Amino acid sequence: MSDPLSVASALIAIVTATLQSSKVLYETIRSFRNHRTAVSDLVRELKGLELVLGPLEEHVRADETAFLPLKFPLIQCREACVGFQELVERSSMRTRGEARTSIRDWARLTFMNGDIVSFKELVAGYKSTINIALADANL
């Protein structure tokens, strides 16, 4: 059986990594300003995820064992954020640091619209799971 302390300390690393990956993805997606509604909705959902992961990180630092059931959803959330970040980067031909999105980026982003909507729903599910755990912890 695993040492509860090592399992719990691993959880804080998972929460922190998930928070960081969602922030990086949020900034990348936000850079596609003034794009379709799906992108705007995804930006809002990612910001919401960041807003629930922050308090979760604080709670996990205070009592790691209470949030162990979130370990696998957090790992999946982080992997989804990293994977979608890579998809966006592969689909974008922009040079790093460029403020504007090219016409090619617009076309690729439009093509990805279904992926964006599906990913937004996935993020919403993770956010809801975390919110429920936080609400339960605050009771």
Automatic annotation (TrEMBL):
InterPro entries for this protein: PigL_N (IPR031348)
Family annotation (Pfam families): PigL_N
Residue ranges constituting the Azaphilone pigments biosynthesis cluster protein L N-terminal domain according to the UniProt record: 2-139
Protein name from the UniProt record: Azaphilone pigments biosynthesis cluster protein L N-terminal domain-containing protein
Native species: Fusarium torreyae
